[in-house]
Design goal:
The chain has 152 residues and is mainly alpha-helical. The chain has a single domain, classed as Cytochrome Bc1 Complex, Chain D, domain 2. Helices cover 49% and strands 3% of the residues. A two-stranded parallel ribbon has the order 1-2. Helix 4 crosses helix 8 and helix 7 packs across helix 8.
């Protein structure tokens, strides 16, 4: 579902060539020399609350409700703490969104609606102690590319 939408937008080709860099970076941020990060409060508390419910329904079995991982025979990784944060360090939020959207849930990958995926990403940001803001993260790859994951 998400992959088909991305392919239609030509995003898959861009990702295959590693072309994320500054593509989609707003001119105002480039001019200021400052990239937005998840430390800037890029999701809302309401979105993280929706994401927590979706996480428990679609992800908790393998990654555990407390996000510590190790559940299921696959030994799912932890989604909270230094290993998770280091895994995504300095990557755009779009990478987290695309990875979750195209590979999860493991038994039925690429079946979650983009809004559900971005709500789950918001919950993961909250669980990793990134601050909430007043606006929601949009389920749009181009709008997520300029937002970087950073170490708290």
């Amino acid at each position: 579902m998400l992959v088909r939408r991305m392919a239609a937008l030509g995003v898959a080709a861009c990702m295959a060539h590693g072309g994320l860099g500054t593509i989609g970076r707003p001119a105002s941020l480039a001019a200021q020399g400052r990239q937005r990060t998840v430390k800037d409060g890029v999701y809302s508390e309401a979105q993280a609350t929706r994401g927590q419910a979706a996480y428990k329904e679609h992800c908790g079995y393998c990654h555990r409700d407390n996000l510590t991982g190790g559940g299921s025979e696959a030994g799912a990784p932890a989604l909270v703490g230094p290993i998770f944060v280091h895994r995504w360090r300095d990557q755009p939020v779009s990478e987290v969104f695309v990875t979750i959207g195209t590979t999860m849930p493991q038994n039925t990958p690429d079946t979650l609606a983009p809004q559900t995926v971005i709500d789950i990403v918001s919950f993961l940001l909250e669980a990793n102690q990134f601050p909430a803001g007043s606006q929601e993260l949009p389920p749009e790859i181009e709008k997520l590319k300029p937002i970087l994951m950073t170490v708290p």
